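user: At home tonight, take the chain set out below, taking as long as you need, and be ready to discuss the fold:
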Amino acid sequence: MKRIFFLITIGLLLFNLTFGQSGHYKRLDSLFNALSKEKIFNGNVLIADKGKIIFEKSYGLANEKTGQKINSQTIFELASVSKQFTAMGIVLLEKQGKLNYDDKISNYIPELDFYGNISIRNLLNHTGGLPDYIAFFEKKWDKTKIATNHDIVNVFAKYRPEVIFQPGEKYQYSDTG
């Protein structure tokens, strides 16, 4: 986590100091090349301004065994990195009146209606009691495939794993939420 924060901070600092004025991306490319060679960074960098891509490059390997390089089509398992973006999207939808924090998840994912009283609020603050899909998938999923949200919903709908506590009863971090 410290490395990610460090990279974002360095990247933003370099962007503001170098690219905000000159429009040249050589220093950013040089930074990510050096970090990639040291095996500190592995991924894609994309900078856009008003929808126009102004810098895009891939660094590192998608598969160390085969030497396959990362490219713009490489699929990454984002895991919890996406939670804050999803939460912000939910906040915006709530402000626009398109949903309510206390809406039941079954309003939006009817396949999970058997979870009854779990609300959007419960998912946002990790008080829903949903079992962790990662542990559950150890037994029920082909590990050679990356599970999508759709896959997770379908597997949960099929096997109906029980909640580990009642919604709102306590806090427990949830990958599933």
About this structure: The chain has two domains: 2-76, 80-159. The chain has a mean pLDDT of 87.
